[in-house]
From TrEMBL:
The protein's name: Tartrate dehydrogenase
Membership in a protein family: Belongs to the isocitrate and isopropylmalate dehydrogenases family.
Residues annotated as domain Isopropylmalate dehydrogenase-like: 5-344
Stored InterPro entries: ICDH/IPMDH, IsoPropMal-DH-like_dom, TTC_DH
PANTHER family recorded: D-MALATE DEHYDROGENASE [DECARBOXYLATING]
NCBIfam families per record: TTC
Gene source species: Mangrovihabitans endophyticus
Molecular functions (GO terms): metal ion binding; NAD binding; oxidoreductase activity, acting on the CH-OH group of donors, NAD or NADP as acceptor
Amino acid sequence: MSARRIAVIAGDGIGPEVVPAAIGCLDAVAAAHGFSLDWTELPWGSAYYRAHGRMMPLDGLDTLAGHDAVFLGAVGDPGIPDVETLWGLLIPIRRRFDQYVNLRPVRRLPGVRSPLAGTEPIDLVIVRENTEGEYSEVGGRVYRGRPEELAVQEAVFTRHGVTRVAAYAAEVAAGRRGELTSATKSNGIVHTMPFWDEVVRDTVAGAGGVRLRSELIDALAASLVLHPERYDVIVASNLFGDILSDLAGAVTGSIGCAPSANLNPPGRHPSMFEPVHGSAPDIAGQGVANPIGQIWSGALMFDALGEPAAARHLVAAFEAALDGGVRTRDVGGTATTTEMADAVRAHIGALTPSYVPE
Ligand code: NAD
Ligand code: IPM
Ligand code: MN
């Protein structure tokens, strides 16, 4: 039985609740498909920070480099500035391993009611640029001690960076309905965005069969609420993609269900799989967090590890569990995190691997 080496960082808040719940489901699916997961549990995060003054050891990134993938819960603690927790762990991982695509599928799930009135299927993918843009490290500074205090940070868009994420998004669209929407703000105010538009257009022009349209981010946000069924693939800059992904998660029911994959498409470095949501300190420790976003992120990890049948098995199992009426509080149910994961595991056992739908 071949083993995949997975570094697991449960992290903070609800991370240590949803990560073990998901691991039980992932192990069960892997066993059914003839492979195993060799988990390296890394106790990094805010507790580690309190003990050592840093979120992970100095050689933490080298430790991760020796793994096939990273499975992350979330980081963020109300008692520690976010700048420490995020720049001390999450962002360095994305950058060191050049995880320039943040892939965030969004679907209406069976049995999960959307706050929106319609019942049309929602099935779209957000491809978020994940290493540059508004999250740049250039010029980030607050100027104090002067009559007019100010804060400045440059947004940095490189032709290389925009081209590769647009090419990836076009490839995803080509394998789906062929509709690619680029989120922009090119009406003369944000000066980087006409360049984003130009590079996206140049890149997608070469992708046969993909129809590209650009939408201004403000109108796109509204349209995503009113007509989510119209979207297929959305390519967006780091910040726009961040905001759209929580919005899209809420539109389909709860951000507790939303998964993400931080990918290094050539596969030279490990990719990282984590839910879209954060550490949710407001519900941490209550055992009520929805584990579906974490479990679905595990399915994205199976896809990236070259195990698509296992990915489909896992998705079919959590869909069946939700459809069967087991749901956590955020999606209108009463199940605890553990009860939700147990229901998913029961469906994993009930579905025969060779009959998992394509
Ligand atoms: P959040 O996503 O943690 O929570 C937003 C709301 O959604 C909360 O009301 C929370 O209870 C709810 N929610 C989130 N996940 C849920 C789940 N699985 N089940 C049920 N309800 C869920 O966002 P926030 O409160 O703005 O951020 C909290 C902390 O997490 C901050 O420190 C932030 O920086 C950090 N954060 C980390 C990551 C990450 O590590 N990848 C991502 C986002 C936010
Ligand atoms: C996400 C998170 C992070 C981001 C934060 C915590 C830095 O919101 O993964 O969506 O903005 O990338
Ligand atoms: Mn976010």
